[in-house]
Design goal:
With about 350 residues, the protein is an alpha/beta fold. Helix content is about 25%, strand content about 25%. It folds into 2 domains: about 240 residues, 3-Layer(aba) Sandwich (Rossmann fold); about 90 residues, 2-Layer Sandwich (GMP Synthetase, Chain A, domain 3), CATH 3.30.300.30. It has 9 helices and 18 strands. A hairpin with a 3-residue loop joins strand 6 and strand 7.
């Protein structure tokens, strides 16, 4: 299966049948997924979310699958009325559903909603709770590892947090020089994983596979994360583009984006670090929405973020550059390229 190429050219990841089975069984355990469920989603069938979880998962669990072709609120509502119990979506799907109260209310009978591929904004979670009586659980993974971290169905919802390591998976955080990062829910490090769900290697040059692993056998995800004392993880972005070094601090772009998305005028947000002679990097926010007042949004963020995490500049744009999976291509933003 090929990676989405968010930060570089897509690479072919070789996934064994054993890894896929281990992952789906661990997710069935976490989400109490059984033959009594009816899975509903309309996600593309060429990536992990739509194909491995959304098709092979249903086959593995023995649950019927309804693919809606397109993941629209109306299609999800209709599937709910026909007996759907387990719904997969990405934040964009859930945001559109939250803005469609009638469709959201139709999901009130669902057993579990699941969100992945990007952080879920708190405003979306609140909207779904108000209309459907629940917000989605979140999970984390990548093509090379499948899903490694997920919030359990029986756990309390913590929007923006992707849960704990799945059965058969271990996680750790490491700093820039390989040093351990404390589990304090604030300190950012690279998320590294090992366990039963990992790929066998990349197709092609073996150096790509070798570079993906640490000397002591952990997979480098390249994702920046924090972990708390209870083992819950929050992903704050990619180490290469989302870890901003500003004024001696390391700031995850995801946390800043989450705060900005709470503003009612902001529909989409992307935060990057741009070169700054004084700070090293300054935090710049690119926003999409209706009637955005950059100064008002900056003040809104200042009430919710520590001083060093606040955007130094807010830029309003018509759209954010995205790849085929809908992920923002941040390499096309910043330093005058937006």
């Amino acid at each position: 299966m090929y990676t989405s190429g968010t930060t570089g050219r897509p690479k072919g990841a070789v996934l064994s049948r054993r890894a896929v089975a281990a992952d789906l069984d661990a997710l069935a355990d976490a989400w109490a997924w059984s033959p009594d469920d009816v899975l509903v989603h309309g996600l593309p069938l060429f990536h992990v979310h739509g194909l491995v979880l959304g098709v092979l998962g249903a086959l593995r669990a023995g649950s019927p699958l309804v693919h809606t072709v397109r993941p629209t609120p109306g299609a999800y509502a209709a599937a709910a009325g026909a007996g759907g119990t387990l719904f997969f979506g990405v934040p964009t799907v859930w945001a559109r559903t939250a803005r469609d109260p009638a469709s959201a209310r139709a999901l009130a009978g669902a057993r579990l909603l699941v969100s992945g591929s990007a952080p879920l904004p708190d405003t979306v979670a609140r909207g779904l709770r108000a209309a459907a009586g629940q917000s989605p659980v979140e999970r984390y993974g990548m093509t090379e590892t499948l899903i490694t971290v997920a919030a359990r169905a029986d756990a309390g919802r913590r929007t923006g947090w992707v849960g704990t390591a799945l059965r058969g998976v271990e996680t750790r955080l490491r700093g820039e020089h390989g040093e351990p990062v404390p589990d304090d829910g604030e300190s950012v490090g690279e998320l590294q994983v090992r366990g039963d769900t990992l790929f066998d290697g990349y197709l092609g040059p073996p150096e790509a596979t070798a570079a993906a692993w640490t000397g002591d056998g952990w997979m480098r995800t390249g994702d920046a994360a924090v972990r708390d004392a209870d083992g819950w993880h929050r992903i704050v972005g990619r180490m290469s583009v989302d870890l901003i070094k500003t004024g001696g601090y390391r700031v995850g772009a995801g946390e800043v984006e989450a705060a900005l998305l709470d503003h009612p005028a902001v529909r989409e947000a992307a935060v990057v670090g741009e070169a700054d002679e004084d700070l090293g990097q300054r935090i710049v926010a690119y926003l999409v929405g209706e009637g955005i007042d950059p100064e008002a949004v900056a003040g809104f963020a200042a009430e919710r973020l520590s001083r060093h995490k606040r955007p130094r500049e807010v830029r309003v744009v018509e759209a954010l550059p995205r790849n085929a999976m809908g992920k923002v291509r941040k390499a096309l933003l910043g330093d005058g390229r937006g």
